[in-house]
Sequence to fold (382 residues):
Amino acid sequence: MRNLLKHIQASIFRVGWPKDERAATKAMVSSITLHVHPPKVRPAALKFRASWALGIISLVLAGALTATGVYLMFYYYPHPDVAWRSMKDLAFVVPFGVVTRNLHRWGAHAMVAIVTLHMLRVFLAGGYKPPREANWVAGVALWVLTLALSFTGYLLPWDQLAYWAVTVGANMAGAIPWLGKPLRILLLGDLTVGEAALLRFYVLHCVLLPLLLFGFVGFHLFRVRKDGGLVVAEHDPATLNAKPGFRIPSWPHLVYREFLVGLVTTAVLLLLSLIANAPLEPLADPARTPNPAKAPWYFLGIQELAHWSAFWGGVFVPAVTVLGLAALPYFDRHMDGVGRYFPKERRVASTLFLLLMTFFAVVTVIGTLFRGPAWALMRWPS
Ligand code: HEM
Fold:
């Protein structure tokens, strides 16, 4: 029996627990999961400041959202007559239903924020410059996909918040000249948010968008490795006294760090999900419009801009932002100061990008906290 178990173990784990550098390298190249990493890495890339761990946290969140999402799918029915009741069942009947829903909801909010911060970090370090241009563009696609996944998931509880947030979001899409109306109908399957929209959002949220996300994540990680790992300064203090090209084994140095980040991320998310419940408003009522009706928080900046001008604020600024981000590496190609945050050679680019992010953060805060009935400005957070 012991022999059989050993045989089974050896058939799966071809190399035992690595005890020296040679075994560690062999383990890294022979395992499908570890092979995502290079066998050795530059010491500078292991420093926390090189990544702020944001890419790995995004990855862990994507994994947690997939696992909890599959569990939720066992109990959820995408029809207006029963969707909201599924949420109540999760709260009162389904084993671990409340905590799974909380994990999924808080994880989704966290993912939008963390992926955006990861983009900011990569920008500030100049990680979009050669040879990483294509990976940056894949990153922009991942950012849009993350927002789309969050938006499509928003409708599924079929409560007042979900219904009206998605109605506002769909109206914003409808403001696009020429394309807006057909796009809105394609998205909703009807003129208003109803049965067809719920089914479409469900299929997009559970099948199409996750498939695209995982396809892009696979490409993204492959490219991180092929483009030489994280972007770090040529003369980083971590390698100052080392020979040029000096590397240290990924096992255990990188793998253990990633494992630790995974544990901390999961623990924080779990703790949050145990102390705070995801809200559920009353059943969606198409006849009772809340005043004001607000989009999900990450679109409230755009809703605020759309309040000033439906086309310029709601369509032009977001479209130019996404297209501009994707085109950036093909215009800004100077390599000076790459791998450092706020180097004097890139002060203008860093300041402009931070100003853009701050602008979106400010309009988001105004839209979220300072807009009351009829979208009037409030003196205090509403
Ligand atoms: C689902 C979303 C995403 C996941 C799971 C993800 C994951 C990762 C991981 C694990 C790394 C290497 C380690 C690290 O940087 O922490 C990385 C690097 C990178 N990411 Fe992402 N990422 C995502 C979104 C984005 C976005 C939105 C952008 C930019 C628009 C981006 C651009 C890059 C680039 C250019 C690199 C390589 C350069 C460098 O890290 O210095 N990623 N990503």
User: Anything to note?
Assistant: Residues 51, 53-56, 58-59, 62, 115, 118-119, 122, 125, 127-128, 132, 135-136, 139-140, 142-143, 146, 217, 220, 224, 230-231 surround protoporphyrin IX containing FE (CB under 6 Å). The two ends are 66 Å apart (CA to CA). The chain has a mean pLDDT of 93. The CA atoms of residues 174 and 184 lie 5 Å apart.
